[in-house]
Amino acid sequence: MYEFNELDVLFDSQTIKPNFQYVHVFLSILLYGENPEGLGRYRLESELLIGSGTAKSLVKRLKENGNYIRIFEQVRREKKELRRKGHVLTEKGLLLLTKIKKKIPILKETQTDFLKEIIIDSSENFSFFCLIKNAGDHLVDGIAQRDAAIMIGGSGATCLLYDGIKIVFPEYYELTEINETISINQEIQTYFKTKIFNSNVILEKGDVIIIALGNELKKARLAALNAALSLIIKKKI
Length: 237
Hints:
The protein contains seven helices and seven strands. The protein is globular, with a radius of gyration of 19 Å. The strands form two sheets. Strands 3-4-7-5-6 form a five-stranded antiparallel β-sheet. Helix 2 crosses helix 3. The longest helix is centred in the C-terminal third of the chain and has 16 residues, at 217-232. The chain folds into two domains: 5-102, Arc Repressor Mutant, subunit A (Orthogonal Bundle); 104-232, GAD-like domain (Gyrase A, domain 2). The protein starts with 21 loop residues before the first helix and ends in a 5-residue tail after the last helix. By secondary structure, it is an alpha+beta fold.
């Protein structure tokens, strides 16, 4: 079942539709979660690779339309004045962050030097991988996820699926019936299983791993997350 329909309010408009996309909303919530003492708009603009106008619109809608963020103010005792330090998550925003992390518990940079077996031109790009829980029923052959990665500026993406025992390519696997499956080599199996275990996440049947590439690290991160969202967002991303 597709989730996160509550975010539609951020895109509703009687006039001009916002330039930001769902991936920018998700990543901004994750970034605010990583910066509990405040995240400024210019930093957000840099991390999301968006223009200043788009960043301003995103912040405004997150604050006013969704009530997901608020201005963080800190008292400077020596001068007895308020100092604004960007925005932080509201209680509603923290609930959204928890929901996102439950569905996508891992979004991390990954090594590319040993991924040649499953990714073309891996040595010439930066790479991020993410884990999407219980998303195998929406995964077909990975083409839609590759396209989603490219649409946001990435170089491509590869999808893998956990069948309950090993990590396999999705085109050889059905959740209801296992026929002949082709798994990836043991080195890569161990790498991802260890990364997931060290993140205190349990790898379960039907979980999807996406590895995305970009010629910049931030592009690779956006590509991985946008590819993930193609599995969990019903509307066009």
